[in-house]
Design brief:
Length: 630
């Protein structure tokens, strides 16, 4: 195999491996050594992608050997010794649960009925339900609640009907039936000399050195073993055998010849995929996380909108950034579904509403970690009064999922940076979809409006991608200009009051600059007295029904010498000419969706402010993430 020395530019590599950050898969075919210790060590390097459960499968003397359990890698290793499996061929998985709680039965690898085929998977198979039903009708028995388990049974069924296809052929046929995102690796005791991998909208890279071949969700896993990387693109299937990796197009089985490239990353850089901090990496992951929110499970989203429809009163309870998502959602539910809801800061819930909650009340608790104490305390207080608990979280298996009647997993993947970014925009996207579903259920929106909004929600990932691409540099310069400011105001109107609050939280949390946010209509009730010449005031200016009045607020601040920083829609000349600095977001974004694109420049502004002030955005002082893996 020809290996060229030309270094691969890291940003192109980033693009090649960016995408869905959930679960980590790894595997290898080694010339000499046992695979299990290599797989174990590699999964440790992938643990930041998911830490609910871990598992390995190896092939030895024509037999499949599987070890898997729920829990963090070190705990499972202590119990079951993940280095102790025979064979130099193997696959492994560290999980971030999306379908099925983090239990041993739901951990990967998953196998077929005869325990001959083992599969690890990263991604979401949207049509797993109907595939499962069909396979059960063909006599297959399922053990887990996962979407992934349909894959080994599908391959088994295809090989049963057409053994001449061989493993690679059967895997190619199987994935043609899958909808969703997936990076999958398959081994079989019937063909014990190969690993077959496929990629579709989920990261997969191949590592090669003189003798061994590795595959992984990303480069950190095999970087200590080789820095020679072979990129795999969506719609490709790779057959790995000793010292060889053959790539073919799934559609027409055409062979793809591609040369491995060398990367010059330190392991630490690799985990951040070349980004200087997890926060900016996670800001860049938002387009893919938003795509994932479009794949939340229909069934549960429908169930949740039914509970909301039936509720006499709906309290949305959360802390920090999640509370800001609730605040924005209260505008969405009211404007689309005519449902009044009460966004409540969790630490005040019991005092503010404790007595008025009862059996007819519904609590929608929002928490990316699913473990925030004040939010859980509110939930248990409400449960004591027989209220119905609904949950929106990013952490399957968290306490919130266990105390909720129905919950939705937003599927943003682990968020390592303490400052919530990708989980916020994903919460907003899920809330907008829920509000739209409820509006349809209540007949409050026409089919045309439904289709229009649904189309726009689908476009959000590309819109956010465009903002990051076009405005990151400008936001960096703006941060450089205002890094020594003593304080900031953040103002918004309507639904973007929530966006202003979020912009403020981010700036205070990681750049340590005092900041006040308030509905622009409140300017005259206190804040305006603080304004002096050059005082930076950030305005979130969506082109909605509040646009005119917001211009009035800008004039008020400008008249007192404030420096106006405006987040505006492209082509909004009226406000651009009033602003000292402005960031543009694409236009024609429906009002109820506008916090998603409008918050991204504020996230980047806070990030670059912290960097300009020499601070570590990932480790803000006086704070810790509810759940982190280091
Ligand atoms: C946001 O950047 C902060 N990390 C913090 O305010 C956070 O939003 C809050 O602690 C809520 O966390 P949760 O979503 O995990 O409940």
């Amino acid at each position: 195999m020809l290996i060229t020395e030309k270094l691969f530019p890291w940003n192109l590599l980033q693009q090649a491996i960016e995408a869905l950050l959930m679960c980590g898969i790894f595997g290898c075919i080694l010339e000499e050594k046992n695979a299990a210790p290599i797989i174990h060590a590699a999964l440790k390097r992938l643990e930041y992608r998911g830490y609910d459960s871990v598992g390995e499968a190896t092939l030895h003397e024509g037999k499949l050997h599987v070890k898997k359990d729920q829990g963090k890698i070190d705990d499972v290793h202590r119990l079951r010794n993940l280095d102790d499996l025979p064979g130099s061929i193997g696959i492994g998985h560290t999980r971030w649960a999306t379908h099925g709680a983090p239990l041993q039965v739901n951990s990967h690898p998953h196998t077929d009925c005869n325990e001959q085929i083992a599969v690890v998977h990263n991604g979401i198979i949207e049509n797993f339900d109907e595939l499962r039903t069909d396979l059960e009708n063909h006599g297959h028995t399922f053990k887990s609640k996962t979407d992934t388990e349909v894959v080994p049974h599908l391959i088994e069924e295809i090989l049963r009907n057409n053994p001449s296809l061989g493993l690679t052929g059967a895997v190619a046929e199987a994935v043609k039936k899958l909808q969703g995102s997936y990076a999958i690796a398959v081994i079989s005791s019937e063909e014990p000399d190969k690993i077959v991998c496929v990629r579709n909208e989920s990261p997969l890279v191949i590592g090669v050195n003189e003798k061994d071949v590795f595959f992984s969700s990303d480069i950190p896993a095999f970087l200590p073993l080789t820095n020679k990387v072979l990129i795999v693109e969506d719609g490709e299937i790779v057959t790995i055998s000793l010292g060889k990796a053959e790539i073919r197009k799934i559609a027409d089985s055409r062979i793809v010849s591609r040369e491995p490239k060398a990367v010059d990353w330190s392991p630490e850089m690799a985990v951040k995929q070349g980004y200087p901090h997890f926060m900016i990496k996670e800001i860049h992951e938002q387009p893919d996380c938003l795509r994932n929110t479009l794949r939340v499970q229909e069934h549960y989203a429908d169930l949740m909108s039914t509970f909301l429809d039936r509720a006499r009163d709906v309290y949305m309870v959360a802390c920090g950034t999640s509370y800001h998502a609730c605040l924005a959602a209260s505008y969405m539910f009211s404007k689309l579904a005519f449902l009044p809801t009460y966004p409540i800061i969790a630490s005040e819930f019991v005092e503010q509403c404790g007595k008025s909650v009862n059996i007819d009340s519904t609590i929608l608790a929002v928490s990316q970690s699913g473990e925030t104490a004040d939010t859980l305390a509110s939930v248990s207080a409400a449960r004591e009064r027989a209220a119905t608990i609904l949950g929106l979280t990013n952490t399957i298996g968290s306490t919130l999922t266990r105390v909720s009647r129905v919950y939705i997993g937003q599927q943003s993947g682990p968020e390592i940076g303490v400052a919530a970014t990708k989980t916020f925009t994903s919460q907003l996207s899920v809330m907008a979809q829920l509000a739209l579903r409820l509006a349809k259920k209540r007949g409050k929106v026409s089919q045309d409006e439904m289709d229009y909004l649904a189309e726009k929600i689908k476009k959000l990932p590309d819109i956010v991608q465009e903002i990051i691409l076009k405005q990151e540099e400008k936001t960096k310069q703006m941060a450089r200009k205002y890094k020594d400011a003593k304080a900031f105001f953040f103002l918004g109107r309507g639904i973007n009051t929530a966006t202003a609050y979020e912009g403020r939280l981010k700036l205070m949390e990681i750049a340590y600059i005092p900041a006040i946010a308030f509905p622009a209509g409140e300017s005259k009730h206190g804040p305006i007295s603080l304004v002096e010449p050059g005082f930076p005031v950030v305005f979130v200016c969506a082109k909605d029904g509040t646009h005119k009045t917001l211009i009035g607020n800008i004039m008020e601040m400008k008249a007192r010498g404030a420096s106006i920083i405006a987040i505006v829609e492209e082509g909004d000349e009226e406000i651009k000419k009033l602003a000292d600095d402005y960031i543009e977001v694409p236009k024609d974004i429906p009002e109820v969706l506008s916090p998603v694109p409008f918050v991204v420049p504020l996230q980047m502004l806070a990030y670059y402010m912290a960097v300009e002030r020499g601070l570590n955005p990932d480790r803000p002082r006086n704070l810790a993430k509810s759940v982190t893996v280091k």
